[in-house]
TrEMBL record:
<keyword id="KW-0472">Membrane</keyword>
<dbReference type="GO" id="GO:2000762">
    <property type="term" value="P:regulation of phenylpropanoid metabolic process"/>
</dbReference>
<keyword id="KW-1133">Transmembrane helix</keyword>
<protein>
    <submittedName>
        <fullName>REF4-related 1</fullName>
    </submittedName>
</protein>
<keyword id="KW-0812">Transmembrane</keyword>
<dbReference type="GO" id="GO:0016592">
    <property type="term" value="C:mediator complex"/>
</dbReference>
<feature type="transmembrane region" description="Helical">
    <location>
        <begin position="1045"/>
        <end position="1065"/>
    </location>
</feature>
<dbReference type="InterPro" id="IPR039638">
    <property type="entry name" value="MED33A/B"/>
</dbReference>
<feature type="transmembrane region" description="Helical">
    <location>
        <begin position="984"/>
        <end position="1008"/>
    </location>
</feature>
<feature type="transmembrane region" description="Helical">
    <location>
        <begin position="1126"/>
        <end position="1148"/>
    </location>
</feature>
<feature type="transmembrane region" description="Helical">
    <location>
        <begin position="959"/>
        <end position="977"/>
    </location>
</feature>
<feature type="transmembrane region" description="Helical">
    <location>
        <begin position="1176"/>
        <end position="1195"/>
    </location>
</feature>
Length: 1274
């Protein structure tokens, strides 16, 4: 069509429009006539030329209402392209909106009607021409640097620019544009207002109505912005802009946040709130609605939402939902390892673990509490018949159940109720409310304890606590009978044989009493159905209160010997009773103080579960007595309390006591209390007081020193001290670390406001005596020994000077310990380790000479040992004489055992000694028991997949041990296995085990690592029930942990479950990073095995019908997903227990990223069941990673560990973003291929995955993505 013809045509259109307007013609008739004329002239419809003509007339020569009506009808009749019209109006109307508010309002009405209808417009025959015209109007290619004028790209740019124009216009209207970094908008630079002010066809003046309309327009513009983010299609188009126009989006989002925070128009809107607007426009918002979740997710949610996780909580076998609580079981069982003393409270750890599992599994607190109780009860049942030896026994288990678990639940309940009471604390008149507000968690506790009564097998009390359980039941019976006897403690000193009925108490009665004592339960529990059977109708005659007991003490009875014996053997039942004893220990006579110390370290410490947390704190405080105000002596004030302190030290030296202190998190404070005692008494010369009483400084020192050494890992194998490949946890347990934790806790105590809830369960006497920090430099003698200890481990001894004080002490010790050898022969003073010759035979009284401070003696001990081994090597000492002399040395100063352990451990590692032949002549022979032990080892390891090599002992190859190890073993077997020497064996035992782990078989060799690997595999297969082993045929917690190490079955030792074995050896594994990688691989393999054999083959045919379009039905998917979840839970638990926070951080930052980018196809693949394996592996990895993180960092911000969560997770997500953002994968794929894949995903109802794929495919695929979104309207 020629130019003149076109001019004639469009002039005719103008005249037709003017005529229709002047006579007030029908807009519909005008539209029909105009459409016919354009068709006759061969103009393609919709016409961009007509759109330009009509908009140019309105803006602003023909800005009258009827002109807008004509334009609206033209849009409805599709003779003009809506997007083109909106583009033209945007550049004309938005910049002049203040002078033409009515036009701006009409523009936005058109935008609401036609701005979201992309599908109909994309089907126009001249679609590409329309989009090019839009680009010419809005300059989208230029502004957004689009590579081409592809229609799909221009649609994204169109939607983005329209929203951005409205945003900047709204900011400008409210005076907020000046707050942007640019101070102006790129979009509001159209025609100047002053030039068009005269074209006010509506006669719009700056009146109150005018300003009101402007404000209404601003509100409407903000609401339209929200609509763009709400609408199904436009929200996804804007998502593409967010993913692929990042620099522009960053500027846009800055403006958007400014609007959200400061806009009065947004706050005045009735359609959208600032909070909703912020959520809609957030970068973290899920683009797809819940209705559009992927089909696999719908199946996951449908399957996992059914059924209570506690429905089978009491089952010890089978992969029931109760297996999801196995982190509780594993943690509790791991705390039973006597070789590990924790610096943090088990209450704190268990509280965080419970909160993590409750949050991740989205379950009720009733189920969570029930899972906790059952896990702790299972622990007690595994240890109901404990083995002998220096290992934690039943008392530690009962502490975990009745004290630690109860306190963890106390904190969880208190956390909720503290928040509720803070809210209810003030009325409208700001008056404090006195009534305590109970929370739902307290009611959930009640429900869990009522439900616990259904698990009778777990509630059977071990023999040592049957009488205590019966007393708890009797107390309830008395309450129900309404009988009152004095103070109500008539059970003091009374035999249950006198009760008129059978009490039949169980572990639930003890749990309820523990909860009542901590005020999270009341005596209404006694009214529960079947809680007790029967009532007491009369008081037994023997309950006359004649027997001394705690009630007598409270009434003021003196501490007579019978009273002391009774209180030592009977635990206190209330805080008031234990505080009474503490007051006696602080302010009474010396004899009464010693009696009070015995009572505190008696049954109240071991089995006073209701007040145990107070007892450990009070004992720790008593070990750090403050300097009396009137004290003026030159010596330490601790010396006058020598007998009292010694009673305390001996009283808490057993392994169960140390574990109880550890479980309550008192180890750092206890270490801080022991170090001054060691410093003072180790510097004293033994002497006699004027009263004739001898101060046994060596005994006090040895008791304190050996106790201190048990609190840190001094027994670590020497290799761990000279190589960098050390376990992330455990290596922290050094004296410096314990003091650091202690100082941190005290600083927190001083600086942090008191937690009113937690302070309620702490005795008023438990505040620390001093809050000043202490360091190793505070104790020069201890620091000197510690430095020598490290040097002894790292290098051969040197530096003993002839005639020095140390040299003289060495001579004295050698003369004392090896006196038979020294008679008539040359002395044993070392000459091969850098020392000079001896000064000659010792003639003075050895006992008088060795009345020296313990620190001086300890300094000489390494040289004594060096001389003894040198003498043995030269044939001047026989093995028996060597061991006897070392035993004499240890008897003289038990603290020297620590030096013996470290010295001989270092000598084993150096490997310079010939092996010792355990032939029964020179060294003890194991021949009598070796074959039996070998069989027992094989029996214990049965079913774990660990192959035990035969010892092949006898004939010409007798059993051998490294010589220094033979010395240590021979020394240990000279001690009797009783409570008097238990604390010494506990000092040596863990070191001996660690040392043996580094020696050749049969000393328990490199096998620790090999065992751990195979045990890991066995842990997964047994827990999931994936093998046919008799101990794990059904899977579940029972298969994983079994019955512990006790001999519960006929025939003595029975196979031990793999979980128990792993928990006992994992601390000997030095390459924990490898173990983490192994756990990830085993998890992936387990998923494949679950899918292939998760259900019996004969049932598979019945499960083919798919409820949600999957290969298997809901029943099989439910079973598979449950096992996958259990496998991931097991993996996360093992990672966390093996290495704690450090290993979890390494997992997230290193192991998982490395695993993702590695090729595992050959390892893990080999067939898939309809995509099930890949999908469940993704689910397993996600659950595994989330659970590991929550175990380490918790689910809230209250713990110090949570501060690291943001950094570590941020690092991991940075990796995911860089590895999976499509730069190296999706962006290299042809756009047509991506589009076909996207269409396929949409057809499979995987719209979210399709959008995510296009979102990371770059600008090149953005157009195809936009067209697919418009076409499919997903």
């Amino acid at each position: 069509m020629s130019v003149s013809v076109q001019r004639t045509l469009w002039d005719g259109v103008i005249e037709m429009t003017k005529s229709a307007q002047e006579r007030g013609g029908d807009p519909v008739l005008w539209t029909i006539q105009l459409s016919s004329a354009l068709s006759a002239a061969g103009v393609p419809i919709p016409s961009t030329e007509l759109a330009e003509l009509l908009v140019s007339q309105i803006c602003w020569s023909n800005n009258v209402p009827i002109a807008w009506k004509f334009l609206e009808k033209a849009l409805m009749m599709k003779i003009v392209p809506p997007m083109h019209v909106l583009a033209l109006l945007s550049v004309s109307v938005i910049p002049t909106r203040r002078f033409h508010p009515a036009a701006y309002r009409l523009y936005m009405e058109l935008l609401k009607r036609h701005g979201f209808l992309f599908a109909s417009q994309s089907n126009c025959p001249n679609y590409e021409k329309i989009m090019k015209s839009i680009d010419e109007v809005l300059h989208l290619s230029q502004i957004f640097s689009l590579p081409t004028s592809e229609p799909g790209l221009l649609i994204v740019g169109f939607a983005f620019s329209i929203v951005w124009r409205l945003l900047d216009a709204s900011l400008d209207d409210e005076g907020l544009l000046e707050l942007t970094p640019e101070k102006k908008s790129r979009w509001l630079t159209g025609r100047q207002d002053m030039e068009i002010d005269s074209h006010d066809s509506f006669n719009e003046k700056r009146t109150g109505r005018h300003e009101g309309l402007c404000k209404i327009n601003t509100v409407m513009a903000v609401e339209i912005i929200g609509e763009f983010f709400k609408h199904k299609v436009t929200s996804r188009i804007l998502y593409l802009a967010r993913q692929n126009m990042r620099s522009h989006w960053a500027c846009f989002i800055q403006h958007l946040r400014l609007l959200t925070e400061h806009s009065s128009a947004l706050r005045s809107s009735k359609d959208i709130t600032p909070e909703a607007f912020l959520q809609l426009t957030s970068d973290t918002r899920e683009v797809l609605s819940r209705k559009c979740k992927t089909s696999s997710q719908k199946q996951f949610h449908a399957v996992m939402s059914s059924g209570s996780l506690a429905s089978s909580a009491g089952q010890c076998h089978g992969t029931s939902r109760s297996s999801l609580w196995l982190p509780f079981d594993l943690f509790l069982e791991d705390t039973m390892d006597g070789s590990q003393v924790a610096a943090t409270s088990a209450v704190e750890v268990l509280t965080g673990l419970a909160k993590a599992l409750q949050a991740v599994n989205q379950i009720t607190w009733q189920d969570t509490f029930l899972g906790l109780w059952i896990a702790a009860l299972r622990l007690v049942q595994r240890e109901r018949d404990p083995s002998e030896g220096p290992v934690p026994r039943l008392d530690t288990c009962l502490c975990l159940l009745l004290s630690v678990t109860t306190l963890a639940i106390f904190d969880i309940i208190g956390e909720e109720e503290a928040a509720l009471n803070n809210e209810a604390e003030c009325t409208t008149n700001c008056q404090r409310k006195e009534k305590h507000v109970s929370g739902k968690r307290r009611r959930d506790l009640v429900a869990s304890l009522q439900q616990l009564g259904d698990f009778e097998d777990l509630l059977a009390p071990p023999v040592p606590v049957i009488s205590v359980a019966n007393q708890a039941a009797a107390k309830a019976m008395v309450f129900l009978s309404g009988l009152t006897v004095g103070s109500g403690s008539f059970l003091d000193g009374m035999s249950l044989n006198d009760m008129p009925v059978n009490c039949s108490g169980n572990m639930r009665h003890l749990i309820v009493e523990a909860c009542i004592a901590r005020n999270i339960l009341d005596t209404s529990a006694y009214l529960w159905p079947d809680y007790v059977k029967g009532r007491i109708n009369q008081i037994p005659r023997s309950a006359s209160g004649q027997m001394p007991g705690w009630s007598s003490l409270i009434k003021g009875s003196p501490l007579t010997p019978p009273m002391v014996n009774a209180l030592v053997s009977t635990p206190a039942s209330s805080l008031a009773e234990i505080e009474k004893i503490y007051q006696i220990a602080v302010s009474s006579s010396d004899d009464e103080k010693i009696s009070a110390a015995k009572i505190l370290c008696g049954a109240s410490l071991i089995r006073g579960w209701n007040i145990q947390e107070h007892t450990v704190l009070l004992i720790t405080k008593l070990l750090s007595p403050p300097v009396p105000v009137d004290y003026s002596g030159s010596e330490s004030h601790l010396i006058r309390d020598t007998p009292f302190l010694n009673v305390l030290l001996v009283g808490i030296s057993s392994i169960d006591c140390i574990q109880i202190f550890s479980l309550h998190g008192v180890v750092p404070a206890l270490a801080g209390a022991l170090m001054p005692i060691c410093e003072v008494f180790g510097s004293m010369v033994p002497r006699t007081l004027p009263t004739g009483e001898e101060i046994s400084a060596h005994a006090v020192f040895s008791n304190a020193f050996t106790l201190l050494l048990k609190l840190w890992r001094f027994d670590r194998p020497p290799l761990d001290h000279v190589t960098g490949d050390v376990a992330p946890v455990g290596s922290q347990l050094t004296p410096e670390y314990l003091l650091l934790v202690r100082n941190s806790q005290l600083a927190s105590y001083v600086n942090t406001p008191r937690d009113q809830h937690k302070s309620k369960r702490v005795s008023k006497y438990c505040s620390p005596s001093s809050t000043e920090p202490i360091f190793m430099d505070t104790f020069p003698k201890l620091k000197g020994w510690y430095r020598q200890h490290q040097e002894c481990i790292a290098a051969i001894l040197s530096g003993l000077k002839h005639g020095s004080p140390v040299h003289q002490i060495v001579d004295g010790l050698l003369s004392m310990t090896f006196r038979k050898v020294n008679r008539g022969s040359q002395p044993l003073t070392p000459t091969t380790s850098g020392s000079s010759n001896s000064s000659g035979p010792v003639t003075e009284d050895v006992s008088l000479q060795l009345k020296l401070p313990a620190w001086d003696i300890l300094e000489a001990v390494p040289f004594v040992l060096d001389a003894a081994l040198t003498a043995y090597a030269h044939g001047r000492l026989s093995p028996r004489e060597l061991v006897t002399g070392l035993k004499d040395l240890a008897d003289f100063l038990p603290a020297s055992l620590a030096t013996l352990v470290s010295y001989f451990s270092a000598e084993v590692t150096r490997g310079i000694w010939k092996p010792a032949f355990m032939n029964g002549t020179d060294w003890p022979s194991p021949a009598a028991n070796l074959a039996i032990v070998e069989q027992q080892i094989k029996k214990i390891l049965a079913g774990t997949g660990v192959d035990v090599p035969s010892l092949a002992v006898g004939g010409s190859a007798p059993a051998t041990l490294p010589f220094p190890l033979a010395v240590l073993v021979s020394l240990t077997i000279t001690y009797k296995l009783d409570r008097t020497t238990e604390h010494l064996l506990f000092l040596i035992g863990p070191a001996l085990i660690s040392l043996a782990a580094g020696c050749p078989w049969p000393c328990f060799p490199i096998m620790a690592s090999l065992w751990a690997q195979k045990l890991l595999r066995s842990c997964f297969t047994s827990t999931l029930g994936l093998n046919s082993s008799p101990i794990s045929s059904n899977g579940g917690v029972g298969a994983l942990l079994g019955h512990g190490f006790g001999s519960h079955f006929s025939g003595g030792i029975s196979p031990v479950a793999p979980g128990i074995l792993y928990l006992r050896v994992h601390r000997s594994v030095r390459n924990l990073m490898f173990m983490t990688e192994e756990i990830v691989v085993l998890l992936m393999r387990s998923v494949k095995e679950i899918v292939s054999c998760g259900l019996p083959t004969e049932k598979m045919d019945k499960l083919k019908t798919a409820k949600y379009g999957m290969r298997y039905g809901q029943v099989s998917l439910s079973a598979a997903m449950l096992r996958v979840k259990i496998a991931a839970t097991l993996g996360a638990s093992l990672v966390w227990i093996s290495g704690g926070l450090s290993l979890v951080q390494s997992l997230i930052k290193e192991t998982l990223p490395s695993w993702f980018i590695s090729d595992h196809k050959s390892e893990l693949d080999g067939g898939d069941s309809g995509g099930m394996v890949a999908m469940l592996r993704g689910y397993a990895l996600a659950y595994f990673a989330v659970l590991s993180g929550t175990f380490a960092w918790g689910v809230d911000s209250s713990s110090p560990a949570s501060m690291r969560r943001k950094k570590v997770i941020g690092t991991h997500l940075d990796f995911l973003a860089s590895a999976l953002d499509g730069k190296n994968i999706a962006r290299e794929v042809d756009v047509d291929v991506l589009k076909r894949v996207g269409k396929g995903l949409v057809q499979w109802n995987e719209e979210e995955l399709a959008l995510a794929l296009f979102g990371v495919s770059g600008v090149g695929a953005m157009g195809a993505a936009a067209e697919l979104i418009i076409e499919s309207e997903f």
